[in-house]
């Protein structure tokens, strides 16, 4: 029997709202609690991960459609894609290593549970209300959707606790 796919939790918000920093701070708390986390980042305006002059950059520039780089304990892939890849397709293709939770940065229009990072006001980034798990803001918020908890960006333990309740480990914590 094939193991079930890990759930996806999206962190969304406008550019430079603090999504990556928040995720970076939540991951160690979840890992300490026994979670095995994978992250997937959506770069809406494209990206350049490989460094000019490195072998992988040179091979990609030479015309390779896909370049894989591997070493003991690491694997990276640089590949051309014809269209934007959906987060669940990435999960199905690449996250099959016993991961307990995928934290995705982006995919605001997908129906997955979301943590919305707010800088100025609710609604600055339009998201589907379905699956709204929490709002994170360092400012008081006027129009909070009913029942959605609001966390300060420094309340990492509170946010991690909420995530743990929503996505309980499907196996016992690590010993």
What does this molecule look like?
- The chain has 175 residues and is α/β, with parallel strands linked by helices.
- It has a domain at 8-45 and 83-166: P-loop containing nucleotide triphosphate hydrolases (Rossmann fold).
- 23% of the residues lie in helices and 22% in strands.
- It has 4 helices and 8 strands.
- The strands form 2 sheets. Strands 2-5-1-6-7-8 form a 6-stranded parallel beta sheet, with helices on both faces. Strands 3-4 form a two-stranded antiparallel sheet.
- A hairpin with a 2-residue loop joins strand 3 (66-71) and strand 4.
- Helix 1 crosses helix 4 (156-166).
- It is globular and about 55 Å long.
- The two termini are 26 Å apart.
- The relative contact order is 0.24.
- The mean pLDDT is 83.
In short:
The protein is α/β, with parallel strands linked by helices. Helices cover 23% and strands 22% of the residues. α1 packs across α4.
User: What does the radius of gyration come to?
Assistant: 18 Å
Q: What's the CATH class of the domain at 8-45 and 83-166, please?
A: Alpha Beta
What is the helical fraction, as a range of percent? Answer: 10-25%
CATH topology of the domain at 8-45 and 83-166: Rossmann fold
Number of H- or I-type helical stretches? 4
Distance between the termini: 26 Å
Architecture of the domain at 8-45 and 83-166, CATH level 2?
3-Layer(aba) Sandwich
User: Average pLDDT value?
Assistant: 83
Shape descriptor: globular
Which oligomeric form is depicted? single chain
Indicate the proportion of strand residues. Answer: 15-25%
Q: Which residue ranges are poorly predicted, with pLDDT under 50 across at least 5 consecutive positions?
A: none
Side-by-side strand order of the widest sheet:
2-5-1-6-7-8
Helix and strand sequence: EHEHEEHEEEEH
**Major sheet:** 6 strands, parallel
| CATH superfamily caption of the domain at 8-45 and 83-166 | P-loop containing nucleotide triphosphate hydrolases
């Amino acid at each position: 029997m094939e193991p079930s796919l890990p759930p996806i939790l999206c962190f969304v918000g406008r550019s430079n709202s603090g999504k990556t920093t928040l995720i970076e701070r939540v991951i160690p708390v979840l890992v300490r609690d026994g979670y095995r986390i994978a992250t997937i980042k959506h770069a809406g305006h494209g990206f350049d991960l490989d460094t000019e002059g490195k072998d992988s950059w040179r091979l990609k520039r030479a015309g390779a459609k896909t370049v894989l780089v591997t070493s003991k304990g690491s694997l990276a892939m640089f590949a051309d894609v014809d269209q934007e890849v959906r987060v669940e397709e990435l999960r199905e293709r690449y996250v099959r290593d016993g991961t307990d939770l995928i934290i995705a940065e982006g995919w605001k229009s997908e129906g997955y549970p979301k943590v919305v990072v707010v800088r100025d006001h609710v609604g600055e980034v339009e998201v589907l209300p379905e699956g709204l798990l929490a709002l994170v803001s360092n400012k008081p918020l006027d129009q909070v959707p009913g029942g959605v908890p609001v966390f300060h960006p420094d309340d990492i333990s509170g946010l991690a606790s909420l995530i743990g309740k929503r996505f309980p480990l499907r196996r016992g914590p690590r010993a």
